[in-house]
Amino acid sequence: MLFAASSEKLRQTSSANIDDCCEACRNAVKQQNGADDTSTAETLTDEHDFSKLAGQTNGLLNVHMWSEICGAELAILRNWPHFPYFPNTRSFISEFHRTQVPASSNNGERIFGFIHPQRSGEYYFAISSDDTSELWLSPNEDPASSEMIARVYSPKESAWTDRGDYKKYPDQISKGITLHAYKKYYIESLSKQGSGDAHVSVYWSYKNSTFEIISSKYLSSFSENNNRESIPPHARKQTGKSKIYFNHLPIISKEEYISLIPSCPYSPSFLVRTKLKQYQGVWLTMESRAPLEVFPQDDTDMMRSNYNSSWVKPNLLLDKNRVESVVDKFVNSLRVRTPLQVEWLIFL
């Protein structure tokens, strides 16, 4: 419910911004021609009629992030088992530019939605990012028809650029692409962050004009829902069910592979490195002032106080009825096995 309300608020805000843009455009023409509202409407041609875009765009793009993925190569994200349908976090942006503040490490991002050109003609696209990235565009609304048109890539190093620098590598600017006014085209960027600064920006240019970041008035999100069916496939991701095989292999010396595999610091807080006394683990949990985190990470946590425990952030990915059903089944199962202990715990 919170997510739906938030999305509706964003949609209404974006629509209001577009309406303001339309009104500003009409007023500018009116002042120039000295005409009334009727003549102003007649002066506006299809090529500059922002009101046509207002009904199609909500000024947003979807942003999905996968956390705790080492390395800076996009192949790592593309081959991640949870990509593209199970991101760790989901959000929206109002222009094709995103900077992670504060910058985080070892993650991958997918930004996707639709662009709505205002004018027909030849467009050029460009991308800049830290670290590597790819820009994909479809000739229509179908994500499966997308092709990579630009990228931040180097065969010799882990590629990255400064903000606004779309000329560092030869593949950052696309070839000319013909788009038609008021048609919508699926677009997405993939970016992989190792360490350091974290940003991605996508620009376009109409008939060799100056490159500009694609603004909200030309954008619409793929979906405002949070279920799997609302997530588009990635054109290069192989479809089909994942198969996991377990094999017994001889142990390899750490010295032989340590320099070949990207690594990231791993020191989970739940590991206890000292010998616990009786009931000490229970009291450590009860007295902890840190959030009791849920695994896998979904930005849901619970704070414990002396008065009560409450969920700081709701779980946006789970249905409330399903959660209650699982909890009820779990508690009922415990009641059957250890009725006295369960009743005692519920009473507490």
TrEMBL record:
Keyword terms of this UniProt record: Glycosyltransferase, Signal, Transferase
Domain PA14 residues, every copy: 56-218
Source taxon at top rank: Eukaryota
Keyword Zinc: no
Assigned EC number: 2.4.1.244
Enzyme class: transferase
One Gene Ontology MF term: N-acetyl-beta-glucosaminyl-derivative 4-beta-N-acetylgalactosaminyltransferase activity
Name of the protein: B4galnt4p
Gene giving rise to this polypeptide: B4GALNT4_1
